[in-house]
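Record type: monomer structure entry
Structure origin: computed from sequence
Chain ID: A
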Amino acid sequence: MPALANVPALLPHTPAKSGAAAGAGPFSHQPTHSDTLNGLMHDARNIMSGLMLYCELLSMPGVLNENHSHYAQDLESIVNRANRMIEKIAETAIASQPLPAGTSVPLPTVPVAAADDELRHLRPLLAAIAGPAIKLSIATMPCSGQTALAVEDLTRVLINLVRNAADAMPSGGRIRITAQYDDSTGFATAPPSHVLLTVSDNGPGIPETLRAQIFALGFTTRKQTNWPSPRRRGLGLSIVRNLVEAAGGSVTALAAPGAGARFEIRLPLVDVTSGMCASQPQSGFATDARRNGCIECQ
C-alpha cells in the first residue's frame, strides 16, 4: 500500500540541472567562495530547513496513510539530530577564532542522562544509516544516570559503529545494540558505576591479530575505490575511541558470540539518578527479551 495518501499542493518542485550546470564529472567543479566552511555551513542549514519543511508537510492530516504516519515523526527526529550535528561542526570551526559581533552563542553541551532512552530515540537514524539490507534491533535495560559523554557525541559514536558494521555486510545481516548497567562490579548492593553499550553484528568479524590496530588513525581493511564512491580514510573507529575516552570511558573490540564483531563501550556514571535498576541485570542480552525491565525495539 502506498505510504502517500494525498500529496499536499505545497510540496515544492526543484527542476533537475543537467550538463555543465550540474557538473559533468568529479573534476568539473571549480572551488569558489561558497566552498569555504562558512559557505558550506550556510548551505547545509538551508538544506536542513527544507527537510524540516517536508517533515511538517508530511505530518499534515491525510498526507500519509495511517500505517505509515510514523514516518513523519521518524524523519523529523533524524533531521533534528542532523541539525545538532551541523551546529556542533560550526561550533568546532569557530572555537579557535574570536566571535564577531552578532554571532550566536554555541549550543550548550547536553550530556547523556539515560542511555536507554537515547538509544531508542536514535533508532530511526541508525536504521537509516544501516540501510535496507540490515536488520537493526535495540534492546535496553533501565540505566538512568548522567555520563560525561554528550548526546551529539553518542550519536557520532553509534553512527560510526553502525556504518562500520554495515560496510562489513554488503549482502545484508543483523546489527544489535544494547544498553544496560555494567554488572562487572556487582552493584546488587551498591549503585552502579558504569553503563555498558554494545554494538554487535553477524558479519565476518575482526581477526584477533587486528583488534589492537583497528582504532588507530588511518587504519582500514576496506579496499580503496575511485570516485564516485567515498574514499576509505580509516577515521570512524578512531573517532569512536577518542570520543569515548574523552568521556572517561573505554571501547573494546571482541568476537561476537557465534560469528561477527562486538564492540563494548563502558561509560562511567557521574550522577546516578534515583530511577536506576533496583537489582543487578543479567549480562549479554542473550535471546530472552522477556527479562524484567528489558525493552526490545525491532
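Annotation 1: Residues 122 and 155 are 7 Å apart (CA to CA).
Annotation 2: The two ends are 21 Å apart (CA to CA).
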